[in-house]
């Protein structure tokens, strides 16, 4: 926009803004000369100015974390005082990166689910070096909760957390979206303390769960054979065996496997169930603990690029040894076995897992809470 048009259309608006040193510095970068001149002295990058003003609306409080795809900040709206999470993602020379586009697209598609992080706004412009995603702010991620919250070992809380994770996955899968990077760090929690009388009945606290970080997510078609996906997904310890074996036509069962790994970690209140620093090592750790599959137990096995008939044969270990807490919990052991089936065709779906008897004591309350949250979200949009 040239300076004449900028002064005609933007000048009166800018001149009426309240005095603010930071705001004056931003406007000066776009050619605004303050009093007594009070006009733009050169052409204005309108997209860049809009982005700068929108960013100014949110004041950074502190950095929450830095990952492979960007930095997350805690910010506060200068006008309303409400807090949010602001995710800063680097752009490419051509605009948004593929990961950013995936995340924005998926979060918008899944905006109706109370167990998926809410995307409030996308801030970017063609000339910007970063894209900013304004999202819901929660208290902590599941890993921090597991390491520091006393209630993390409460079985009812574990059931509530996992039921909500599965609810989010079911919604994503119903909309033909795989997350592909489910792990404790990507599961966010909002914790609401309850009165002492309600604590005993409700599991010590109300825990709201939202799945986040959809940078590796992607859409899929219902028949896995028609898919062709990369195998460079999912943090190693939560990666499904079919991906480790080189499958390029996997389905949404990879998310259920990851959720099963997270559930085992919650029940053990320790480190991940399967651990290694390389893919072959992790595959062998899975086989040692769950048993080495054969073409008889998994007919599609020989078709996998990384399969070898020379793999060591391990009979597997009792689940009660791997997760001692399930020694006297037959329903819990059955659910974990179904979620961690090495053969993906025998693996339970997220929808089926939600109907498992292990969740009977938390299902009514979780569904009631989800209904209330969904109603509140719809009211807010209206």
Automatic annotation (TrEMBL):
Gene3D superfamilies linked: Phosphorylase Kinase, domain 1, Transferase(Phosphotransferase) domain 1
Keywords: ATP-binding, Kinase, Nucleotide-binding, Phosphoprotein, Serine/threonine-protein kinase, Transferase
GO BP, sorted A to Z: G1/S transition of mitotic cell cycle; regulation of G2/M transition of mitotic cell cycle; regulation of gene expression; regulation of meiotic cell cycle; signal transduction
Catalyzed reactions: L-threonyl-[protein] + ATP = O-phospho-L-threonyl-[protein] + ADP + H(+); L-seryl-[protein] + ATP = O-phospho-L-seryl-[protein] + ADP + H(+)
Cross-referenced InterPro entries: CDK (IPR050108), Kinase-like_dom_sf (IPR011009), Prot_kinase_dom (IPR000719), Protein_kinase_ATP_BS (IPR017441), Ser/Thr_kinase_AS (IPR008271)
Domain of life, per lineage: Eukaryota
Domain Protein kinase: 58-359
EC code(s) of this entry: 2.7.11.22
One GO location term (cellular component): cyclin-dependent protein kinase holoenzyme complex
Residues that, per the record, bind ATP: 87
Gene Ontology molecular function: any one: ATP binding
Family statement: Belongs to the protein kinase superfamily. CMGC Ser/Thr protein kinase family. CDC2/CDKX subfamily.
Protein name, entry field: cyclin-dependent kinase
